[in-house]
Amino acid sequence: MKRSLPVLLAAILGMTLGLVPLSAHANSNASDNKVYAQPGDHLVNGRYWKTTCDQYSSSVVRCNTSIWGAKSAGHKGWVFNTLTYLPSSRAAWKSNPLGRSGSWTAKDGRKWKTDCDSAATGRNGCRSYTLEGKKWVVNNIVQFSSKAAPAVTRIPAAAPKLKGVPVETKVTNQTSAKKAVSAALAKVGSRYVHAATGPNAFDCSGLTSFAYRQAGITLPRNSRSQFSAGTRINKSNLKPGDLVFYYSPISHVGIYIGDGKIVHAANPRTGVNTTSLNSMPFSGAVRVG
After folding, report:
1. What is the pLDDT of residue 8?
2. Where are the domains of the chain?
């Protein structure tokens, strides 16, 4: 019998934690499903989770879940776990590749695949993966509404306040940001190669991780994880060195260099170059640390 999406979410949670079942921990305050579907902080199996939700469209709610863990050597913080699209009509996904089985290549050259209604996903659900090096990594889950799982068209109420939630501390300064900008600009003209991390060829997250590595800071390897690599900031508050992200779901990252411009590893045709901050659909920004 095929599994349902709630069972799939519970399975993913268990694999992520690598710990005993939820019921074995009296100090847990959330069910498996709420971790991914309810805004706020959660404590499950002794680990902290943080979920934010936004209105992806008029009828679809998207939740972004992070887990407290190691972000770089000697530094803990909030690390991206997965995106969950709450139950919605299958018709709402008719033209979206995240809602039907298949594979595709994003504008930034990254490879994606989606698996729906299979033994792996269960009925009324899809999982999408991105190719990171030679490994397919889960990026998001789409749930279709049913009698058992009614559509959720508005952001759910937040979880009750939780005591003891860890607070991430900044570990970088403007000098590190300037070093990263300089390192990235020095690579303008380099080739774009999928999964390359330098020193002579890069993909988008390969360039950003290379640049910050020159400043002594280790970033996660892919763009979706780098979105959890610092403090999220408004577009109006950008400073040189901030990471800027594009498309939905996030599939591209660059570094803001000031004056409304970014440096990024664009694609195989143009390689590493500078361009306008607004040259692509802006998704968010992060100040590293």
Report:
1. 52
2. 5-144, 174-288
d(CA 80, CA 187): 28
Structure tokens at 142: 């789409």
Residue 16 confidence (pLDDT)? 43
Residues 6+ apart with CB under 8 A from 169: none
Question: Which positions are catalytic?
Answer: 204, 252, 264
AA identity, residue 40: G
Q: What is the per-residue pLDDT across 197-233, written as a single tens digit (0 to 9) for each?
A: 999 999 999 999 999 999 889 898 889 889 988 889 9
Distant-in-sequence, close-in-space partners of 152: CB < 8 Å, separation ≥ 6: 37, 61, 86, 87, 88, 145
pLDDT value at residue 21: 28
Give the integer Cα–Cα distance in Å for 198 and 243: 18
Verdict on whether the full-model pTM lies above 0.85: no
CB 72 within 8 A of CB 217: yes
Q: What is the pLDDT of residues 34-50, one digit of tens each?
A: 899 999 999 998 899 99
Contact 78, 168 (CB under 8 A): yes
Separation of first and last alpha carbons in the chain: 45
Residues 54-66, mean pLDDT to the nearest whole number: 93
Query: Which residue blocks in 5-126 are alpha helix, DSSP H?
Result: 5-17, 32-37
Q: What is the 3-state secondary structure (H, E, C) of 215-260?
A: CCCCCCCCHHHHCCCEEECCHHHCCCCCEEEECCCCCEEEEEEECC
CATH among 3.40.50.620, 3.40.1160.10, 3.40.250.10, 3.90.1720.10 for 174-288 = 3.90.1720.10
Residue 285: its H or E element: strand 282-288
* Beta bridge partners of residue 130, listed in sequence order: 112, 137
Omega before residue 249 within 30° of 0, cis: yes
